[in-house]
Amino acid sequence: MANPIPNHSTVPPLLQVQELSKYFVLSVPWLSGIFGRQSPPILRAVDGVSFEIQRGQTFALVGESGCGKSTAARVIVGLYHPTTGKIFFQGKSLGDPSVKSSPESHTRMQMIFQDPYASLDPRWRVQDIIAEPIRAFHLAKNRTELRERVSELLLQVGLSPSDGEKYPHEFSGGQRQRISIARALSSHPDFLVCDEPTSALDVSVQAQILNLMKELQRRLGLTYLFISHNLAVVNHISDYVGVMYLGRLCEVAPKRILFNQPQHPYTRLLLDTIPDLSISGRRRQPVTGEVPNPIHPPSGCAFHPRCPSAYDRCRIEKPNPKFAKDNLVACHAVEEGLLQ
Amino acid sequence: MGWLKRVMDHDIFYSFTRSWVIMLAAFITLFIVITSVFAPWLTIHDPFNPSSLNLMDAFTPPIWISGGKWIHPLGTDDQGRDILSTIMFGNRISLLVGFLSVLLAMLIGVTLGTVSGYIGGWLDSLIMRLADAQLTVPPILIALLINGVARASLMRELQESLNIYVLVFSIGISAWPQYARVTRSGAMVERNKEYIAASRVIGVHPVMIMLQHIVPNVMGPTLVLATIGVPLAIIIEATLSFLGVGVPPTTPSLGTLIRVGNEFLFSGEWWITIFPALALVVLVLSVNLIGDWLRDTFNPKLR
Amino acid sequence: MTALLEVDRLRIEFPTRRGVLVAVDDISFSIEEGEVLGVVGESGAGKSITGAAVIGLLEPPGRIAQGNIRFEGQQINGLPHEVMRRIRGAKIGAIFQDPLTSLNPLYSIGQQLIETLTTHTDLSPAQARARAVDLLNEVGIPAAERRVESYPHEFSGGMRQRVVIALAICANPRLIIADEPTTALDVSIQAQIIGLLKSLCHEHRTAIMLITHDMGVIAEMSDRVAVMYAGRIAEIGPLRDVVKSPKHPYTVGLMDSIPVVGQEKEQLSHIRGAMPRLQEIPPGCSFHPRCPKAFDRCSGERPDLMPTSHPTQFASCWKFARAVQHG
């Protein structure tokens, strides 16, 4: 598929996602299934998503609830099996039988979660939590090496080695996220999937964690897939941004271009909702409607009921991503040059 | 003694010291456990040893009634067994059967419940239907059934020595479904939490996840069930012994004594039934109270 | 002229076996009729507890240890439950964060509206039903006449919050306590709800105490802002002034750490450390260990709100004592 990110090197992108889909079949009461011939409703959480991430970059997936960004992240990291589509990590296909048996992909790809209170086992000491990947992959030769590595990781994320003895409940939300990051780094990954890592944190703590993540990226050469609904945070941390709506990608573009010249009507709507802290009294375009139920998505383009530029074609035909200058946009109006 | 200080500092210990009823119950339970452990040294004779019995001492009344002797403060039964000694030895059986059967039930229940709740799917349905089926039969009947099968199939000589284990097995089997259910709901809640997802992303084997992460986090309500299960098991054992299908009559438990004394209840020798019955009530009540308190303490909403 | 709501030296304590924890420590502020006061702060700052105390829903063992809350000139803290219940709903309304748990799932929204209306106004059930439909229209629920029979679970999150707003305004309260009213909603819905609240309150001249950690929501809605930190008010003043030229070092740090679109920074500025827990509040100014501008006086004496260089802005910071002295 076409990729907005110019690849000038011969090295393949670190992650390639092609036509990835994840459908959930929802359960129907047994009797209705037999007597009512009710076919079980299908939730198309992710519906044909394609993008690439180059090594060392931060790719952000933004969208509102139900857009499928978290599900996409979980499919990529292996928590769900994709319904259709392919994922290539470091050139190798995930889900390929030969790759599955090797733990390679696991050590190289790790995840950080949103809820600092649920992402650490409350009954484990911090040092054991951080050491779990090391133990799982036998990365340390003996106890001493393990302990040293754990201390090193704690320092790296801004905590002290003595914190290893404590339990998660003795730490604040921000500190727990640091512990999660330390755990994710312990197997020397190349790629981190971050699912709303700062959404549950207070603003000043969020700033600390974002700074830490940027610093670690610079120092360790990490690549991030960053999921968020907060556009200001995405603007700060990402290099490329993908906007999702009801399981599909609306627009993919380099950050500066997306924020300055958004093409897709949904992207424009989203950018309009960013609060104006300069209190300029900027007029906002009135927003209508809500995100529809993903079990019964609208026909054609999923956004058409809320789109100020919708016309006939939008109701019938699902738009495919096409290039419009530097942006990859899935919109008929943009394709036909109907929007300025 | 740093850990002792930490225990005493803990919220749970605090709420413990706040309730005199619970402290009394704990003290009584501890007392009962200690006297039963040291029973061979504390009693005047071994009531389970037929050669130590003297029929001449039969039907001695308790000390405060005329005819009573100091050596038998609570009197003797129809075979000359000292009631107090038999109660102490009977407690041993009650406590042993009570704890061991609950342990067995927990082992089975927690394992099946964790697997059921974490893995889900057809395995979950299978295990839960099994549990449902078993729950339709009252525990005593199940215990009776297993006991009966054991009697019919084991040889006489083996029956006596294996008796306790058969009892433990039958009571334990009758109780596993409730532990499985409680563990299963806990497992279903925990499996959706992000720390489990984190372990899965790391690639930890599901069995290790269940053992190291799920089980420690769902044990709380199970332990509370267990503390209430122990008195229940004791009652079931007493009932079985009362019915004559529990422990053999030569090694009487509290239930056996109650049965034996039943015949003499209204003919004057009331102490043979009453004291063992009181002892049973005190034991069961104390352990039950502690179980109730533990349940309330561990309920975060009430804290 | 007395303000609609006057909070005077309010102190809220939680007795625990390890001692008394002070959640809100001697704060004073007021809300005028028709005004929107944004109360912003990070989690644990005490803003929700203050809102709960004003509306009389403070959960025991929390209690108001000192101070007064006056509504329309009358003291309302310490009133008997029955009296407070009538004020709540009729004069003071509430909107909470989670619309899912704010509505009773077993009753239709019409029934819930009618119940509130008949309790707090003189309307008959038939009149109340008509008014309920009007209210649903006013909050932007399409096909109100039909949807008044629907149950909460049949609405989406944003629609449910609109219903909650309808319930809050149905008896024409003079003041609404809104605790994180948009936090659980998608960003596009947030903007709609904020717009709705603003227009409703403008029309009915209802004052709002808007409690949130989200500075963006504050900036969109408030007339004045109070910034809370560790149970104290760090700064209070008109929105524009507090946001664009904050005076208290905490507010400065807070505003600086918020990422802004278009601003190209490698690292966000942040405040070292974290807000202290209730058990560990430092002496003197509770912010001093983290404050880049702290000096001797800050660790010894606790500052109260005092005038700053700007006439309408007040901050509890010793920097301004000097300014006043030398001024």
Mean pLDDT of chain A: 86
- DSSP strand tally of chain C: 12
Order of helices and strands of chain C: EEEHEEHEHHHHHEHEHEEHHHEEH
Q: Averaging pLDDT over every residue of chain C, what do you get?
A: 88
The radius of gyration of chain A is 21 Å
SS summary, helix count of chain C: 13
Strand order of the largest sheet of chain C: 6-7-8-3-9-10-12-11
Question: What is the CA-atom radius of gyration of chain C, in angstroms?
Answer: 21 Å
Low-confidence stretches of chain C: none
Oligomer: heterotrimer
Shape of chain A: globular
Described by strand count, sense and barrel closure, the largest sheet of chain A is: 8 strands, mixed
Terminal residue distance of chain C: 30 Å
Give the proportion of residues in helices of chain C: 25-40%
Summed up, what is this model?
The complex is a heterotrimer of chains A (340), B (303) and C (327). By secondary structure, chain B is mostly helical.
Description:
The complex is a heterotrimer of chains A (340), B (303) and C (327). With 340 residues, chain A is α/β, with parallel strands linked by helices. Chain A has helices at 30-35, 69-77, 97-100, 104-108, 126-136, 143-156, 173-185, 203-220, 231-237, 255-260, 265-272, 312-316, 332-335, and strands at residues 15-25, 42-53, 58-62, 84-89, 92-93, 109-112, 191-195, 223-228, 240-245, 248-254, 322-324, 327-329. In chain A, the strands form 2 sheets. Chain A has an 8-stranded mixed beta sheet with strand order 6-7-8-3-9-10-12-11, with helices on both faces. A 4-stranded antiparallel beta sheet of chain A has the order 2-1-4-5. In chain A, helix 6 packs across helix 7. The radius of gyration of chain A is 21 Å and the shape is globular. Chain B is built from 12 helices and no strands. Helices cover 36% and strands 22% of the residues of chain C. Chain C has 13 helices and 12 strands. Chain C has helices at 47-54, 81-90, 99-102, 109-120, 125-138, 144-147, 157-169, 187-204, 215-221, 239-244, 249-257, 296-300, 319-326; strands at residues 5-16, 19-31, 36-40, 63-71, 74-75, 92-95, 175-179, 207-212, 224-229, 232-238, 306-307, 314-315. In chain C, helix 7 (157-169) packs parallel to helix 8 (187-204). The two termini of chain C are 30 Å apart. The model of chain C has no long low-confidence stretch (mean pLDDT 88). The A-C interface holds A 64-65, 172-175, 202-208, 210-211, 214-215, 229, 231-233, 235-236, 259, 269-279, 284, 286-287, 290-291, 293 and C 42-43, 156-159, 186-192, 195, 213-217, 219-220, 239-240, 243-244, 253-255, 257-263, 265-271, 274-275.
